[in-house]
Amino acid sequence: MAYPSAVAGIVNSKGEVARVVVTQPWLFHHHVKPGERLFIIPGLRVREPLSIGQAIPVIEAVKQYVESSK
Length: 70
What we know:
With 70 residues, this protein is an alpha+beta fold.
């Protein structure tokens, strides 16, 4: 059985959420480009693949976490 994946938001140099990444925590560094920041959402784990119905609340949780962390 696969482990649940972690969720992170990648923020660009303008402070905007550029992408949401769902993967194992040790793989996040592959998704971050120079000048971007990684925000790993604590306690949020999901099983892949996500349906669109599951993805929308995950994306909203990332946006809320990033905004509260600024």
